[in-house]
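WARN no homologs supplied; continuing
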Amino acid sequence: MKNIKYFLIFLALLIVAVIALNYINSKPNKAKENPYEYNVDEFKEVDPALIHYKEVRQIKVHLADYSALTSYNGNIYLAANMDLSVLSPLGERISQFTIKPDARALAVDENNIVIAFKEFIEVYTHQGELNYTIEQFSDSSVYTSITIWNEKIVVADAGKRRLYGFKGTDKVMEIEGVSGAKNLHGFIIPSAYFEVAVNAENELWSTNPGMHSLQHYNESGDLLAEWDKISMEIEGFTGCCNPAQFTFLPDGRFLTSEKGMPRIKIYSQTGELESVVAAPYKFEGNQHAAEVAVINETIFALDFDRKMIRVFEKINP
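OK structure emitted
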């Protein structure tokens, strides 16, 4: 009986010791490193040989949560707070007029300044006079990007997962992102990032962010071409919705901007990475995607976290 008693006492002490040791090791300053921790630090570094641009200046601006940037005729157009500002490449204000708050996207041609808000679109003259308004199309619409193509205003609707084309206030085009595609997946929009733009060849391209792809459509909604790059490495796109922003260089190459792990890159017309404009370590804060615009080969990036337009110029070889 004594042996059993001693064994039970020993067993009880052993259990207490194990519990105490586990408690000590579970303290924050004693906890073991998590081998499954999601760490992207290694992907923030970029081979310097890939970086073909340098930051040459910064233009301080007053930004709201929602702001928009584009370029036209050698100038920068910025919709922020309740102002539409036209800026020179050096940041000098050329003109300004009052708009509604929370502009989401912006497009400009020789006759119009078109501003997309979450659920409606306003079309202004260059003198700041409101021409007309395209009213809310659907209760679930979330407009995120806009362009002007073949005399139509084309808007990306992340809420309805469609591209819509308007002539005046009439809807004349709707693209679901499935017609002509091998895999009838449609537009996959996990969050409010859905972009559309037109290149120098007058081709309409959009992102399909859930697929990490860029896609070229005709007016009938047929998919004519696409490319994708899915990778954590610098060559690809990662996260839920990248590329979050894109536009074109004058020669038709793609300029892309990513969120989560922000970086700005240039791809060939067929989707091959050519160079990096800004590596992830150039950004900070909430990891927003910079909105991008181009004048010649100078790149303008709207940095929401630092509240500035950052200007990048190509490095001479």
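The longest strand covers residues 53-60.
OK
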